[in-house]
């Protein structure tokens, strides 16, 4: 049969090579020093690769040469947006290994401050995510609320960002005098402010058109990649470590888990907003039932967990942050391994971005809510 | 009082000592006016940055610049000095000459346009060209060239993408912008900007009353044409770093900035002139010119013009700090699927409206037109017909385009908006005992 060559395919008509675009490591919206190598056809993403490690500090290796009590500050520097929750993983892991029983008051205060930290982290996510999509004003509004939380942290821990919040066996000191009043003031103002953000974004046509149907990931796919946190719940998978394996005082708390439907950027946005509301609910409950008593367990002179290994994880703001600890019975861990939620959530970037435009890549990086300090460790 | 009552004679008398009357009319006065306008526009650009920062600050619950001078009033000057003394860096691989020239083209294109803008009657306009509107559109579109050249010569991928975006954007929105003006031109029956204003003065109606649809289209496409948020894709900070001027620094960068703000003023000025009556406001003429205060009339008209200009510019700032940014393909959708069809509908309906008004005139004793000497001068009946057609235009366009775009993904967003489910998971075995067991 005679075949006529007809120039129908794109390659023959317009033989232009794809463009390789380096996004980062110095780029306004890669949230740190992430380098994304994009292969673009016009503005459509054909292929994508991430280059990480610009912030590598060898934190897991450093931990092998430190006493157990000295490692906690390093955890603050993983996900510096959520230093308080990160610190909690570490101290709880060591406490579990040693079989320490922490007094309930410490558990409750830990719950309050970790949830405040979740709100702070989600607020910063909202700020940067909105900024990436172009809504600048939300950035400053969200930071205004975060400031209130950071003030509470500053009064409690003496630091705003890397708090070194907890000690093995409890807390460095009890809640400060006005703690209750400060937290109550924040939780009473907060819902009103959250509604304000919703009026600017949730119903906004441009916001909807930029987020609905962008970066869709199904529940099965999300589980296969190992997504956790709001990114997983946005796809409709009901999984929250606060419920499935409660730590701190979460077993006593009554709260709901928000679940998305389609697993797109908009669902993840809604899930995070609702999580902030639920966090506030937890804070109020914990504050109402705050027990009296000591905040520290009795500790031996040197923290020396028995020989063995242990894995403990909590629901951080970004997802499941875990610590795998191997002890050889000395005062220093034999091996410490971090399960960083940001790194594992970042694996989904390629699946989410293919076929979308450059502008969507920025929105998707924002919606995954990554922190490079945690990815590179 | 002398100054307010009569033309500014003393300057003329002073100039006559050095030049002939003809030279003064054709050469010296225009130069004085040009100097004034350029200085004022440059000053405006500097203080527009201040205003924008202050307005955004108030929207964002902060103070904005406060350190340099009282309330930070000297901040623009400090910024200007900083920009002038910065290193003028040219990337090694850049196309030097084009990289050099691009900012000047941008600024020139923006500033030349001011020649025909009627800031006020009489001496308030540098030159009243009878194709003024065409001139504005033609010259301001040269600005695209500067952006393309800047993006191309920088030899950077971000700049190139920014330049490509901006050229596509400006070209498609220029079409809508030009088409949206035609309706108003049919009422004014002239392309001269002063002529359009006096037509509105003659009819004592601002044209946005007759042309609500045209005014909307013009505003949207004007904002897009200026690359301002929510259409600021060419310089989309979060995606393209800074778009076409990524590689520019110091003075050359500030030239682009000046061009952007000057272009903003031009689009607002055209919107004011064509749709908001320019320097015309009710009662001003009757109170000043009719009593013989000619210069007072010009000055008050100038203030009226500037007030309207300020209102439109505030709209620019307001939108920029409120809305997120569109995506590139959505921007094209709005341009081609919404604005251009609506502009065409607008032209058709305006023509129909004029036809109806003219046909009604004299039919069963109805009088709709007073005169056609300069633009349409309508009676109350005629005005009512026009307004009805204007509102009809809005309705028809809205319905028609909604029908056409019904199936497009971006249109039915509200129905796509979902609520999240709240579930209460069963509790698992606690990892940590929440309450200490009794000793």
Written overview of the protein:
The complex is a heterodimer of chains A (377) and B (439). Chain A has 377 residues and is of the alpha+beta class. Chain A has a single domain (49-376), classed as Cytochrome-c3 Hydrogenase, chain B, CATH 1.10.645. Helices cover 48% and strands 12% of the residues of chain A. In chain A, a hairpin with a 4-residue loop joins β5 (308-315) and β6. Chain A starts with 9 loop residues before the first helix and ends with a helix. Chain B is an all-alpha fold. Chain B is built from 18 helices and three strands. In chain B, strands 1-2 form a two-stranded antiparallel sheet. In chain B, α16 (328-360) runs antiparallel to α17 (380-404). Chain B is globular and about 90 Å long. The model of chain B has no long low-confidence stretch (mean pLDDT 80). At the A-B interface, β1, α4, α5, α6 and α8 of A face α8, α12, α16, α18 and β3 of B. β4 (257-259) of chain A pairs antiparallel with β3 of chain B, so a sheet runs across the interface.
Secondary structure: helix percent of chain A? 40-55%
Structural class of chain B: mainly alpha
How many separate structural domains of chain B? 2
Rg result of chain B:
26 Å
What class would the helix/strand composition of chain A place it in?
alpha+beta
Name of the CATH homologous superfamily of chain A: Cytochrome-c3 Hydrogenase, chain B
User: Tally the helices of chain A: what do you get?
Assistant: 16
Give the key terms:
heterodimer, A: 377 residues, alpha+beta, 3-stranded antiparallel sheet, disordered N terminus, B: 18 helices, globular
